[in-house]
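Lab meeting, item 3. Inverse folding demo.
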């Protein structure tokens, strides 16, 4: 089992054990317990526990700092794709767009071919004639519209 899979499994296990369903942990202590470096914990948190995947990660820095991870349950009968659309925000950098698409393929919402076409439409090369200050807003808007049409 890869270390990132082990970290994910550990965090999910802690979430299941918690009364409120939220895992609260300290990054350095978790890294020491699992025998990895703290940056691997950060990688797992930023790649596998994202709003697009249905999680909220809160952190507090300092000596008494912690990381709290909780699963977001959609209000009313909101589809998982609509949750992703609503979590995108006003701007979207290329790496975040790619992460969203990869997550959607992993979760079975998109096939690889559709995700590849969407990624091409969201790449910086597609916006080379658009002023830099507008690219992230345009990318977010385009992804929201593509996903809304896909639902």
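The presenter then showed the designed sequence:
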């Amino acid at each position: 089992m890869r270390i990132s899979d082990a970290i994910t499994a550990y965090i999910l296990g802690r979430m299941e054990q918690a009364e409120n369903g939220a895992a609260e942990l300290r990054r350095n202590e978790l890294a020491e317990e699992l025998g990895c470096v703290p940056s691997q914990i950060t990688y797992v948190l930023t790649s596998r526990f994202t709003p697009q995947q249905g999680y909220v990660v809160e952190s507090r820095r300092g000596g008494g700092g912690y990381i709290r991870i909780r699963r977001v349950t959609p209000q009313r009968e909101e589809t998982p794709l609509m949750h992703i659309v609503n979590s995108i925000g006003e701007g979207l950098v290329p790496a975040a767009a790619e992460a969203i698409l990869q997550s959607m393929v992993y979760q079975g919402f998109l096939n690889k071919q559709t995700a590849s076409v969407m990624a091409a439409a969201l790449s910086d090369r597609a916006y080379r004639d658009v002023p830099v200050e507008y690219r992230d807003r345009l990318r977010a808007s385009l992804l929201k519209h593509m996903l809304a049409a896909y639902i």
